[in-house]
Amino acid sequence: MRALCLALALIASPAMAQEATQNGSGVAIRALDKLTGKVSDMQLPAGQMQSVGRIEIAAEQCRYPDGNPAGDAYAWLTVRELGVPEPVFRGWMIASAPALNALDHPRYDVWVLRCTTS
Questions:
Q1: Are 93 and 113 in contact (CB under 8 A)?
Q2: d(CA 90, CA 76)
Q3: What is the pTM of this model?
């Protein structure tokens, strides 16, 4: 089943990349601290970094289909844990399928909600 999901994701990725022709000015992100249960929503401008608990999230860019910043948005994120030089995550996260390329961290979950346009 996992292999089937991966194959479908690889097939769908080029189609999504072709549809997503607009760049957003930033990204709306949700972070969950699994230890405390605290959920944090944030608007992160492209090229900026924001801290949540013991992690820092940096957004490079967010892309979305023409005229639909909330639909099938995907963002390039870098997530670092404080005091750790290497990122714990660097790559594209897809709003409509957050499990395809998820942050693998014992304490935090981070996912993309949508692109921001202003």
A1: no
A2: 7
A3: 0.77
